[in-house]
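USER:
Make up one protein:

ASSISTANT:
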Amino acid sequence: MDQTWSKADIHIHTTYSDGTAGVEAVLEYVATRTDLRVIAITDHDTIEGALKARRLAPAYGIEVIVGEEVSTAEGHLLALFIERPLAPKQPAATTIAAVHAQSGLCIAAHVSHDWPLDAIEGFNASLWLPRANLAAAATGAVLGLPLIGGSDSHHPATIGLGYTLFPGHTAADLRYAIRTRVTRPGGASWRWMHNAEYIGLWLRARAARRCRCPLLKCRRSHFQSGFCRLRPSFLFRSVQTKLMLPHRRAGEEIAHRHRAGVRRAAERG
């Protein structure tokens, strides 16, 4: 096998779950702004985004692993190299067996568990406390499991902050490296500005999904219609209130006019 080492980010989210970037935006960022050769799309409890990314990836010159961050009854589990979605809220042992039945790999995400795993996420760039990654790495060493790294990215600026070094260039090389326990986790944690940026993007996306404009009788988002002026320092509830106020007032005015019209029609009748 080629002994040139490459980078992979095995923990990335898209708008198919709680990420803020679409599949194309993620692939474009990876291809133009990073030195990653392989990525895994690991949306929460779905593989639709990962399948789409794998289909589009050749045009961007990168390889995509189909993955899923599964919400088991005992915690989150990263499943890599799978072809079928995994049911959430199942016991971890059941989920792990289902992953292995697809010849996939199971990796503990965020924290370490005493599950029958194939690897441990020894570095997660989104964790604020360094001791969490240190504890995961120590658990991997005790259990004799390979350590991998990922960004846990939910917006493009954080893609590649956490990564896995492996000998070779391809997804198959990465899989072999995990199996033979020669991977190395690395990277840098999210900075405060990354967290602030993600919160702002997430709130904008949430406002866009929730808005139903009664005045314009369309599904235009607040951001598109110019009502969204988010700042990351706003509290979640106050932001939602500020965003909904213009359309709420318009809706109340329309409702008032409707009730008045009904009353006038009743009086004429």
User: Anything to note?
Assistant: Residues 5-190 form a domain with the TIM Barrel fold (CATH 3.20.20.140). Strands lie at 5-12, 36-41, 63-72, 75-80, 105-108, 119-124, 147-150, 162-167, 184-187. The radius of gyration is 23 Å.
